[in-house]
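Changelog-linked ticket: adenosine-5'-triphosphate example.
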Amino acid sequence: MAAPVFPSSRSLRERVGALRHLPSLFRLVWQASPALTVGSLSLRLARSVLPVMILYVGKLIIDEVVGQTQLASPGGGLSNWIESGRLDFVGGLLVLELALAVLADLLGRASSLVDSLLSERYSNFASVRLMEHAATLDLEQFESSDQQDRLERARRQVTGRTTLLTQILGQAQDVLTVLSLAAGLLAYAPWLIVLIVLALLPAFVGEVHFNAQGYRLNYFRTPERRQLDYIRYLGSSVETAKEIKLFDLNSFLVHRFRSFADHMYADNRRLAIRRAAWGTFFAALASCAYYLAYALIVWRTVRGEFSIGDLTFLSGSFLRLRGLLEGLLLGFSQIAGQALYLEDLFSFFDVRPSITSPPVPRSFPHPLESGIVFENVGLRYPDSDRWAVRHLNLTLTAGEVVALVGENGAGKTTLVKLLARLYDPTEGRILLDGNDLREYDLADLRRHIGVIFQDFVRFHFTAGENIGAGRIEATDDRSRIQQAAERSLADRIIQRLPRGYDQPLGKRFRDGTDLSGGEWQKIAIARAYMRDAEVLILDEPTAALDARSEYEVFQRFRDLSLGKTAILISHRFSTVRMADRILVLENGQVVEAGSHEQLVASGGRYAELFELQASGYR
Ligand SMILES: Nc1ncnc2c1ncn2[C@@H]1O[C@H](COP(=O)(O)OP(=O)(O)OP(=O)(O)O)[C@@H](O)[C@H]1O
């Protein structure tokens, strides 16, 4: 496999520019839980000043001890010392230091508790926002692979990157601690601070560089990572197990997985090794600077400029400061690096659908009066230079049952997608009762069109929920669900299930029962009957049904669609012939129209296809 060619690396400006998303992140965190956000910030604030206090009390203790050793001993045991009052101050200091240490531990634990709760709330909240936003997007925005990559990165951002939040909060706390320690150091030896910053600068630049490299690697690996997830899914899920076994595809999948994974591993390893090597070198530089400063402090203590207490305070502060500044600088670059991932999340939130309701929408006519007219409609799918349908002209009169026939790829499903406004025509227009489809309220339009596609979803929920999904606000309305099930003949299947309507379907979850293809289809058709649809569309509704079921289902469909407009797509002429009118599609155009008898008599395309199928039964 060839190594990927990365576009030029993102500039520092771009990386720092990504930090502009931090306010949006904080807004999201705040919305996830105001109380926990305030709690976390307050705890961090309290924790930030403790280190300098502990160090300073330590210095006072040492100075006091050194002072005491220079005075004459009161003699005797501990009780004499206590009575003389010479231990009062140091004793008080020890108790104070103990109290501070206990408080620091307490606040530390409380803070990680609050942070972990906040992270989970944030992750859940952002996931919900992600799903809500995804629901507003056009179908086309899901289908393009670029969008799927972006969605994938946004998803990972939501679930995998809550550490960013803890990191930012930790950084804020560390900044305050640094300020408090620096204030102490400043009073004694300001040059120490300059020394530390100089020593850490190379490490900072190195980190920024490697973070950007890591991000690029991840960014350009998104398609491969989705491939890996997909292969993992193929190789280890119930839906695919049957075919994978029969065709013995496992070793093929493992091989493919390995070749992708090994390639990614090699890239990651190369980066990790370089990062570790440079990191070690920079850390060594920083250590040299630290010991240089330490030597200077020791020298000035020996000369009597600093007390022993000062020595411990300074070396302690200096050590902490070095660690903190190192953490801060690296943390900053990591945050800038992670903010690049935030870019994925927020740029996904910025994607706007193009199929929307107009500002002043019409509501769906109830009942439909004249019907639907396609006027010279053409659609080219995004990223495709072929017309899926073109110069499509047809009329669907209100109240009639129309069947669409045509060979694979003729454009039948495309016509339905256009009608449900899953796509808007590239050219021409679709009129509903004389008005352009785009003038109607989108949600209202979709509410009044009941469609079951040939690749309908088999929800691994209960049977009742599978049907209720057709009208989600009625999902608890058992009598409505039962009625829909009776209409589609799904009731007989459900009666046989051990837990009836509460029976989980599919094999994915515990106690699930799988159904046959035809049984699933009846459940899906019931879903369409849940709606008060003015237009009912069934795409290959009877493909998986046996002959008797097909006949019964269709008879019911006819009865139930009385007064409604219905479209039926089928390759089975036994179904098609029962429609009022049949439209024959070829290469995205209507080439013939009429009743079964008329079309057979005219001896055209339909007659030919019908004859082909009929001869198969003779
Ligand atoms: N999402 C898509 N992106 C690009 N091209 C598509 C897409 N969906 C369908 N097409 C193309 O549009 C044409 C019409 O497809 P459509 O699904 O409408 O055919 P159909 O008549 O329903 O076929 P079938 O009988 O196989 O279901 C085909 O050439 C197909 O390759």
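Closing comment: Example verified and attached. Residues 32-350 form a domain with the ABC transporter transmembrane region fold fold (CATH 1.20.1560.10). The CA atoms of residues 139 and 422 lie 6 Å apart.
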